Amino acid sequence: MNKLKLVELSILLVLISITSHSQIKKNQNMSLYAIEINTLDENPINLNDYKGKYILFVNVASECGFTGQYSDLQKLYDTYQDKLMVIGVPCNQFGSQEPGSAEQIQLFCSKNHGVTFLMTEKIDVKGKDQHPLYKWLTDKELNGVKSTSVKWNFQKYLIDDKGAFVDYYYSITKPLSSKITRQLK
């Protein structure tokens, strides 16, 4: 009878270990809403403010062949702003195509493209200094869905209204593409 109790105890410990491991794995999926990032004018952005809306994150640059997408991003935002927040994320890592200061970026975007959607501080979207936002967007261990890499300016990441990773779209995907808009219906 003593050996039977020992076997039962061993089985119980194994089950507890398996359950604990799966719980730890689930907890690795960090909430997008917990990530800290600032606006271009250095004010904190509370991503919790956008719970209940889709969020489209786009790494942007003012001197890129895709810079014309700013206008379509604004149209997308204007059309779906009741259910979508577009967040532009300036980055100078691809061909040094976003060399400007925060003030220069803001002026360029508003003057040339009428941008009124949210713009963050300039960050790194890849590499050793990758911002936590892009770590979350590009790492399956954090977002729970898919690992990706940022290939160029104007790559887009769509998050659903509950903060879950939906999909990503390369630079060639236009902001008003049905690949994106059908997710917002």
Q: TL;DR?
A:
The protein is α/β, with parallel strands linked by helices.
Task: Describe the protein in words.
The chain has 6 helices and 7 strands; from the N terminus they run αβββαβαβααββα. With 185 residues, the protein is an alpha/beta fold. The longest helix has 26 residues, at 2-27. α3 (102-113) links the parallel β4 and β5. The chain starts with a helix and ends with a helix. The protein has 2 domains: 1-30; 32-184, Glutaredoxin, CATH 3.40.30.10. The chain has a 5-stranded mixed β-sheet with strand order 5-4-3-6-7, covered by helices on one side. A two-stranded antiparallel ribbon has the order 1-2.
Record the SSE blueprint.
Blueprint lengths: L1 H26 L9 E2 L5 E2 L8 E7 L8 H12 L3 E7 L11 H12 L4 E2 L12 H7 L1 H4 L12 E4 L5 E5 L8 H4 L4
Parallel strand pairs: 3-4, 4-5
Antiparallel strand pairs: 1-2, 3-6, 6-7
Major sheet description: 5 strands, mixed
Helix and strand run? HEEEHEHEHHEEH
Radius of gyration: 21 Å
Q: How far is the N terminus from the C terminus?
A: 63 Å
Low-confidence stretches: 19-27
Question: With helices defined by DSSP (H or I, 4 residues minimum), what is the helix count?
Answer: 6
- In the CATH hierarchy, the architecture of the largest domain is 3-Layer(aba) Sandwich
**Oligomeric description of these chains:** single chain
Q: Strand order, biggest sheet?
A: 5-4-3-6-7
Number of strands: 7
CATH class of the largest domain: Alpha Beta
Q: Share of helix among residues?
A: 25-40%
Number of domains: 2
- The gross shape turns out to be globular
CATH fold annotation of the largest domain: Glutaredoxin
Report the β-strand fraction as a percent range: 15-25%
Question: Please, what is the CATH homologous superfamily of the largest domain?
Answer: Glutaredoxin
